[in-house]
């Protein structure tokens, strides 16, 4: 099957760790997990909400210890993304989640970057790396990690904000985003996944983000929707994720097509594909069967994804 060229703009690299790779890395690194086999691990992938997912997501990271582990995870993702029609990927990783486990920053960054460096040649997928900061940890820690990334010249194109949203509003990270902006980095943030529409407004006005990750709760506020349409703010929506984390009841109830029809600049992405039931193609196929996504709508989603990327104009043109 031929695919439209898509840009994957909302993907957590650690969320691509498939159960098979978790078990393989556990064996390789002699890490004891509370699961006997892949089936037992897979059975744990039933979530009530964002936090119940995050608990497993962080726990499974225990198997990531060496440069090779990070490189293997990255290579496995790129190979799979290429088969999904992804031609460009802006990949988030969570440096703090590894630092708190005692894994040095250079192990994480060098492991990932070593594979990204050849991804265009190896897989036909261009890439950018985004350091995502954990909003349920202190801003001072995030500032310190950002400074360390910048000091060592880590190949990051931007920063993001993720982890437990409710009770951790964007405004807590104003200094972090100001510093990243001064450093010339792109700015994105999760907002309006479980948190209220006001977090979307604050991500735009207080943090100055260029893209909103998720943003589905914006639909609770008509004035905000009108603004998002007028400004054509990119929103990276992840349907299988929203259903898996029960932000939306079923795929048939998912608002993404309504968002598209209301003129919002939405595109579809996979978030944590190993945990939520699939990659970019799986998300699109699921929307096709549950919401009757048309070929025309699929094309709009593909074009929006490329236009909402941080690619230079010439590479964008190649993909449009
Ligand atoms: N939401 C918030 N933080 C995250 C997610 C998510 O879906 N995945 C990894 N970190
Ligand atoms: Zn996400």
Automatic annotation (TrEMBL):
Its cofactor is Zn(2+). The keyword Metal-binding applies. Its EC number is 3.5.4.2. The record marks 214 as: Important for catalytic activity. It is an enzyme of class 3 (hydrolase). Residues 5-320 form the Adenosine deaminase domain. One of its GO terms (molecular function) is hydrolase activity. It catalyses: adenine + H2O + H(+) = hypoxanthine + NH4(+). Binds 1 zinc ion per subunit. Zn(2+) binds at residues 10, 12, 190, 271. The active site is at 193 (proton donor). Substrate binds at residue 272. Keywords: Hydrolase, Metal-binding, Nucleotide metabolism, Zinc. PANTHER family: ADENINE DEAMINASE. Catalyzes the hydrolytic deamination of adenine to hypoxanthine. Plays an important role in the purine salvage pathway and in nitrogen catabolism. Belongs to the metallo-dependent hydrolases superfamily. Adenosine and AMP deaminases family. Adenine deaminase type 2 subfamily. NCBIfam families: aden_deam (TIGR01430), PRK09358.1-6 (NF006850). This is Adenine deaminase.
